[in-house]
Specification:
Layout lengths: L23 H23 L10 H18 L2 H26 L21 H4 L1 H23 L5 H17 L10 H9 L3 H16 L25 E6 L3 E6 L5 E3 L3 E4 L17 H8 L3 E6 L11 H20 L4 E6 L1 H16 L4 E7 L17 H14 L1 E2 L1 H10 L2 H4 L1 H9 L8 H7 L4 E2 H13 L9 E2 L2 E2 L9 E6 L7 H8 L6 E6 L18 E3 L7 H7 L1 E3 L4 H11 L3 E3 L24
Parallel strand pairs: 4-5, 4-6, 6-7, 7-12, 12-13
Antiparallel strand pairs: 1-2, 2-5, 3-16, 8-9, 10-11, 13-14, 14-15
Helix pairs in contact: 1-8, 2-6, 3-5, 5-6, 8-15, 10-11, 10-17, 12-17
C-alpha cells in the first residue's frame, strides 16, 4: 500500500524566550489518570478472553528464521569475531565524534538516515548531541544486523529473504523514534501538554483494542470522515447483475458516443473495488467514463463462512465469466476489453489462458495493472508462503471458512512498517492525536475476508509452486498455458512496488504468447496506478515488449512526464475504435438492481 508522505520537520526553536515550565499540578492529575487507565488495560489483557495463549505463529517463525542466521555466524568463530569487531569499531568512531561535538566542534555524521526517512526529521535529532548519538547508534546497529543477514553463509535464499523481512520488523519496532524517553519531539510534546497526550493515547489504545476484538487494530484515519456512496465511490451507475460472488456495476455514460466494445474492470478481491473510485478528482473509473468507455466493474462480495468452498475456478466462472455474460445481455456485444488490478489481474490472466485453451475467446484485449503471473520475484509477501506457514493459514481458515481481513491488512502494512505502522502508533498512543481523515487510508482499513478454498489455491499455486508461469496450473481439468494467449496485452508495473515488484511484472510479460506492451510507472502499487492526468505526481516509461533484463529495458526506455492514463487510452482505442451511441445502464436487457456502488461493497469485516 502507498504510505502517506511524512510531515515536514517543525521550525527550529529560537532563543527569543525560554520554554514555559510544565504545570506540575496538571501533570500529576494526568499521571493518576494514566495509571488508572493502564490498570484497566492490564486487567483486560489478563482476562481469559484478552490474553494470548502463547507466542503467535508469526513470532515463532521469526525466532526460528533469525536463529538460523545466528547459527550460521556462530558456526565460524573467526567470522563472528570479525563481525563483532566491525560493530565495536563503528561505535568507537561514534563515541569519538560525539565527544568532539560536546566540545563544540562540528563533525560529519558516522551514520546518516536515508533522505526519505521521516522518523528523524525533528531538528533535535541532529542538533542535540545526546539524541544524535542515540539516532546514529540505532542506525549503526541496524545496518550491522542487516549486513549479518546479507552475508550469512549456509542458508538458502528463501531463509535469507525471510530473515531480511523479519529483521526489518524488529528494527522498525525498536527505533528510538517510537519511544517517549528517546524521542526529543515526544518529550517536548509531552511536557507541553503536561502528560495529557499520554492519557488520550491510552484511551485510543483501549478503543483500538476493543475494536479489534482483543487484537490491536491501529487506526490510520478517522473513519467518520467517509462513507461509501456519499464521498467515496460516487461515480454514477447502476448494479445490473448479482450472484453469490459479485455485483456488476454499469456506470452512467458522460459522452454522447462510446466505444462499441464494452470495458470490464476486475479489481482485487482482497480489497474493495473503490480504490479505483476514491473521489471524482482521482477516480480512474470516472476518467474512463469521461473518455467514452462503457465501463462495467466487478464488486466482489465480502465472503463469510457460506463462501468457504468458493475456489479459484468459482471466482473465474462466477466472477469474470458471469460478468462477461451479463455485459453481453446488457449491451448486445459478444466481445469485451478487460483490465485486472493486482490479484484481479492474476485471475484475469488465468481466465485468458482458459479461454485460449477452450476457444471461448470473448476477451479481445487485456490490461494488467501491477499484476503478477510469474511469482519467481514476488517480493516480501513471499515470506508468508512456505509450506509450514500455508498449513498454519489453512488450519486457521478451516475453523471459520475464511481468512480474516485484518490478517491480510496487517501483512500489507508489514511491507512498509516505517510508513504504515509505527508513525500511527506514535501519533495515536504517545502524541495522543487522532489521525486525520484520508480517503486512501480509509480504503486501506476497509479490509475484506478471503474464502478458504480460493485463498489456499492462490497461495499454493502462485506463491509456493508458481504453476501458472510454468504451464502447470489446472482448473476444471484444463491445463493452462499463457503462451496460448495471443491477444494484445498492456502490462503496467510501478517502480517502487512492494507487492508486485517491477521485475516480477517484467518477467511475467515474457510468459504470454502475443504482443505485450510493458509500461513502467513511477511510485508504488497504489499511487503509481491512481495518478490522474489533472494532477499527475509521477511519470512513466515506455519501451515496447519486455525483452532482456529490466535494467537494460529501463536504460533504453522513453520517459514521459505526467500520467500514463492517456497513453493507455490511446492503446485501448486503437484495438477497437468504432463508436456507438452511449448506453444507459438499466435500459438494456438487464434492469437496474439498485444504484452504484451497490450492497456488497458496504459489508465490513
Amino acid at each position: 500500500m502507498q504510505a502517506p508522505k511524512g510531515t515536514a520537520p517543525p521550525a527550529p526553536v529560537t532563543d527569543a524566550a525560554p520554554p514555559a515550565l510544565p504545570d506540575f499540578e496538571a501533570m500529576g492529575r494526568n499521571a493518576g489518570q494514566l495509571v488508572e487507565a493502564m490498570g484497566r488495560s492490564a486487567a483486560r489483557y489478563l482476562t481469559p478472553d484478552g490474553a494470548q495463549a502463547g507466542p503467535s505463529d508469526e513470532v515463532n517463525e521469526m525466532v526460528r528464521t533469525l536463529g538460523r542466521v545466528a547459527e550460521s555466524w556462530l558456526a565460524d568463530p573467526n567470522r563472528s569475531v570479525e563481525a563483532q569487531a566491525k560493530l565495536s569499531q563503528a561505535f568507537l568512531t561514534l563515541w569519538g565524534s560525539t565527544y568532539l561535538r560536546l566540545q563544540g566542534q562540528q563533525t560529519d555524521p558516522v551514520a546518516a538516515p536515508e533522505p526519505r526517512d521521516a522518523r528523524f526529521a525533528h531538528a533535535d535529532w541532529s542538533q542535540n548531541p545526546y539524541f544524535d548519538f542515540i539516532k546514529q547508534g540505532y542506525l549503526i546497529a541496524t545496518r550491522w544486523a542487516e549486513g549479518l543477514v546479507d552475508e550469512a553463509e549456509g542458508i538458502d535464499e528463501q531463509t535469507r529473504h525471510k530473515a531480511q523481512f523479519y529483521l526489518r520488523q524488529v528494527t522498525s519496532m525498536l527505533s528510538p523514534s517510537n519511544f517517549l524517553a528517546t524521542n526529543p519531539e515526544l518529550i517536548r510534546h509531552t511536557l507541553a501538554e503536561n502528560g495529557a497526550n499520554l492519557v488520550r493515547g491510552l484511551q485510543m489504545y483501549e478503543e483500538d483494542l476493543e475494536a479489534g476484538g482483543g487484537q490491536l487494530r491501529v487506526r490510520q484515519t478517522d473513519p467518520s470522515g467517509f462513507e461509501v456512496g456519499r464521498n467515496v465511490a460516487v461515480t454514477p451507475g447502476e448494479v445490473v447483475f448479482r450472484n453469490d460472488l459479485i455485483e456488476l456495476i454499469q456506470y452512467a455514460p458522460a459522452t454522447e458516443t462510446v466505444l462499441k466494445r464494452p470495458f470490464l474492470m476486475v479489481p482485487p478481491w482482497i480489497n474493495k473495488f473503490y480504490i479505483l473510485d476514491l473521489n471524482p478528482q482521482k477516480s480512474f473509473i470516472k476518467w474512463m467514463v469521461d473518455q467514452g468507455l462503457t465501463v462495467f466493474c466487478i464488486s466482489w462480495v465480502n465472503p463469510d463462512e457460506r463462501h468457504a468452498a468458493k475456489d479459484f475456478e468459482s471466482y473465474m466462472r462466477e466472477g469474470i465469466e458471469a460478468a462477461i455474460d451479463a455485459i453481453g445481455a446488457a449491451t448486445g456485444e459478444t466481445e469485451v476489453t478487460a483490465a485486472g488490478y493486482c490479484v484481479g489481474g492474476t485471475l484475469l490472466a488465468v481466465t485468458l489462458a482458459m479461454q485460449a485453451a477452450t476457444g471461448n475467446r470473448r476477451i479481445r484485449s487485456a490490461t494488467l495493472l501491477t499484476t503478477q503471473v510469474d511469482f519467481t520475484h514476488a517480493g516480501d509477501l513471499k515470506v508468508f508462503a512456505d509450506e509450514d506457514q500455508i498449513r498454519q493459514v489453512e488450519a486457521r481458515m478451516a475453523e471459520r471458512g475464511y481468512l480474516e481481513g485484518a490478517r491480510m491488512a496487517n501483512a500489507f502494512n508489514m511491507l512498509r512498517p516505517n510508513d504504515l505502522i509505527w508513525p500511527y502508533v506514535v501519533n495515536n498512543y504517545i502524541k495522543g492525536k487522532a489521525p486525520s481523515a484520508f480517503d486512501l487510508l480509509y480504503w486501506n482499513s476497509d479490509a475484506t475476508r478471503m474464502p478458504a478454498a480460493n485463498h489456499s489455491f492462490y497461495l499454493r499455486n502462485c506463491y509456493l509452486e508458481n504453476t501458472l508461469s510454468q504451464g502447470k496450473m489446472v482448473l476444471g481439468n484444463v491445463r493452462l498455458d499463457l503462451k496460448k494467449v495471443k491477444i494484445p496485452i498492456f502490462n503496467l508495473a510501478t517502480r517502487e512496488d512492494h507487492i508486485a515488484p517491477a521485475l516480477s511484472v517484467f518477467e511475467g510479460s515474457k510468459k504470454f504468447g502475443g504482443p505485450v506492451d510493458y509500461v513502467l510507472a513511477g511510485s508504488g502499487h497504489i499511487a503509481g496506478v491512481i495518478n490522474p492526468p489533472a494532477k499527475p505526481k509521477y511519470g512513466y516509461w515506455t519501451g515496447g515488449p519486455a525483452k532482456g533484463k529490466l535494467e537494460e529495458w529501463i536504460g533504453k526506455a522513453t520517459e514521459t512526464k505526467g500520467s500514463w492514463w492517456p497513453y493507455w487510452f490511446q492503446w485501448i482505442e486503437a484495438q477497437a475504435p468504432e463508436r456507438v451511441p452511449a448506453r444507459v445502464p438499466g435500459e438494456g436487457s438487464l434492469a437496474s438492481l439498485g444504484p452504484a456502488p451497490g450492497t456488497y461493497v458496504r459489508i465490513r469485516s
